[in-house]
């Protein structure tokens, strides 16, 4: 497909601040080599892999694992892994993102079938209906010409409603989830953040403990009931694993997608010609969302991995027993892989990005996230002839952790005349 031109550059804070202070210049990943030592804002000292080919290969390399208790203990002793982080890993020991095959395979099999392309296609009409209602409400809210916040009133509710319905979680509880998810995703620092993180994790765990009991008594057609039945039916999913799985799906299932929708709309606003091309050719929507994932993918680094043997990555060898973070965003901005990576181009011909990772841990919710973002942008385009930023771009605030997204996106909307 031909490029539609109209470069839209990522602003400096996005392009250079990969981990809220981590000194990785994603624009120059070719110049800095495949990997180097660095410190993440969470305080973890690790090898940061930043070049596309090496990140791509490392994601499927069996010498890199997510669970290595001995290595973690040693890293804690050396002061490279904060004790509280090792503790976090300990508690979440048997989640999808802290296990390796075959344990990981057992856990993944229980949920993967709920997120296949076919299952997600069946959810599309519901997503369309949710977006339609949200867009109608936005139209009313903005009729007087006042600015509306697209994050709070649009990008947020869709993924929350979808994942809550999928899991069978009452949507009324979403304010609590938002609070807990925020703490889990963004309270990664020291001091009071640790207590907030721990309190939120405990609340989520308690919540799902109670929900499991309710679903056991009153099973419904939802994923929680299916997982409870699997557990009760003798599957090897134990009670703690069940709660951990539900919490992971809820947290992973909305935070990143909210950020993708918000960042995608902003990216399109910065790129009027591409926005217009998409309006004229809505069939380009899937390509546009893929380019948004590459250009402003919400996840900075993979989950932390550990080397079980020496690992050669290009001209660098990472010794055994080290922590490694794979820079997904850095890889997706590697000019060796993507010509002019800072350009936003929905017609980019070869766009195999790594925003969802790769290999055994490839995002289980990728189909769902893609579908939600496509429906959200499409519905917005249909309902509003004009969408424009209501504040200067440099006043927009970003929430930066390993996941990044807009705090709010104030816009003015002109409704399409029916
Ligand atoms: C734009 C939205 C999303 C992005 C960018 C994203 C990104 C990712 C990435 C990069 C990984 C792999 C991490 C690694 O290998 O260390 C991952 C894993 C995962 N994601 Fe997503 N995700 C998104 C949406 C979702 C949704 C909607 C769900 C919920 C259903 C979800 C659930 C998960 C789970 C459960 C895993 C762990 C998979 C495993 O370890 O087998 N994600 N995601």
Describe the structure.
With 418 residues, the protein is an alpha+beta fold. The protein has a single domain, classed as Cytochrome p450, CATH 1.10.630. Helix content is 50%, strand content 11%. It has a five-stranded mixed sheet. A three-stranded antiparallel sheet has the order 4-12-9. Helix 13 packs across helix 15 and helix 15 packs across helix 17. The radius of gyration is 21 Å and the shape is globular. The protein starts with 11 loop residues before the first helix and ends with a strand. The N terminus is likely disordered. It binds protoporphyrin IX containing FE. Protoporphyrin IX containing FE (HEM) binds next to helix 13 and helix 17.
Write the layout of secondary structure elements.
Blueprint: H1 12-16, H2 29-32, E1 35-39, E2 45-49, H3 52-58, E3 64-65, H4 69-77, H5 83-91, H6 103-112, H7 117-142, E4 148-149, H8 150-155, H9 157-167, H10 174-186, H11 192-217, H12 223-232, H13 239-269, H14 272-280, H15 285-296, E5 305-307, E6 311-313, E7 316-318, E8 323-326, H16 328-332, H17 366-383, E9 384-389, E10 398-400, E11 404-406, E12 410-415
Parallel strand pairs: 2-8
Antiparallel strand pairs: 1-2, 3-5, 4-12, 5-8, 6-7, 9-12, 10-11
The structure holds protoporphyrin IX containing FE.
Protein name: Cytochrome P450
Pfam family, one: p450
GO molecular function, one term: heme binding
């Amino acid at each position: 497909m031909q490029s539609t031109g109209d470069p839209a550059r990522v602003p400096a804070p996005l392009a250079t601040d990969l981990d809220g202070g981590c000194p990785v210049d994603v624009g120059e990943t070719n110049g800095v080599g495949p990997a180097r030592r660095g410190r993440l804002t969470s305080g973890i000292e690790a090898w940061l892999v930043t070049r596309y080919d090496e990140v791509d290969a490392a994601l499927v390399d069996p010498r890199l694992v997510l669970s290595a208790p001995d290595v973690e203990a040693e890293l804690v002793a050396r002061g490279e892994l904060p004790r509280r982080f090792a503790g976090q890993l300990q508690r979440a020991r048997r989640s999808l993102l802290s296990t390796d095959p075959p344990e990981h395979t057992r856990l993944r099999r229980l949920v993967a079938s709920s997120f296949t392309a076919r299952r997600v296609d069946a959810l599309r009409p519901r997503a369309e209906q949710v977006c339609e209602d949200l867009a109608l409400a936005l139209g009313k809210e903005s009729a007087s010409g006042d600015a509306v916040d697209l994050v709070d009133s649009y990008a947020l509710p869709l993924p929350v409603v979808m994942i809550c319905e999928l899991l069978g979680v009452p949507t009324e509880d979403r304010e609590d989830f938002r609070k807990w998810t925020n703490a889990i995703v963004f309270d990664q620092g020291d001091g009071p953040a640790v207590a907030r993180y721990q309190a939120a994790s405990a609340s989520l765990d308690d919540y799902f403990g109670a929900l499991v009991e309710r679903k056991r008594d009153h099973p419904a057609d939802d994923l929680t009931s299916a997982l409870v039945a699997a557990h009760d039916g003798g599957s090897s999913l134990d009670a703690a694993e069940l709660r951990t799985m539900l919490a992971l799906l809820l947290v992973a299932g909305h935070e990143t997608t909210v950020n993708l929708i918000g960042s995608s709309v902003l990216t399109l606003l910065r790129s009027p010609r591409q926005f217009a091309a998409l309006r004229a050719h809505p069939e380009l929507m899937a390509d546009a969302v893929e380019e948004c994932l590459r250009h402003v993918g919400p996840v900075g680094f993979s989950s932390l991995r550990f080397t079980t043997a020496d690992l050669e990555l290009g001209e660098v060898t990472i010794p055994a027993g080290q922590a490694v973070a794979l820079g997904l965003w850095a890889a997706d901005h590697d000019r060796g892989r993507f010509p002019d990576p800072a350009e936003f181009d929905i017609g980019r011909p070869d766009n195999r990005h790594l925003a969802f990772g790769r290999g055994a841990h490839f995002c289980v919710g990728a189909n769902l996230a893609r579908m939600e973002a496509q429906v959200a942008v499409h519905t917005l385009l249909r309902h509003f002839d004009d969408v424009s930023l209501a504040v200067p771009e440099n006043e927009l605030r970003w929430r930066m952790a390993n996941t990044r997204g807009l705090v709010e996106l104030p816009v003015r909307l002109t409704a399409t005349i029916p």
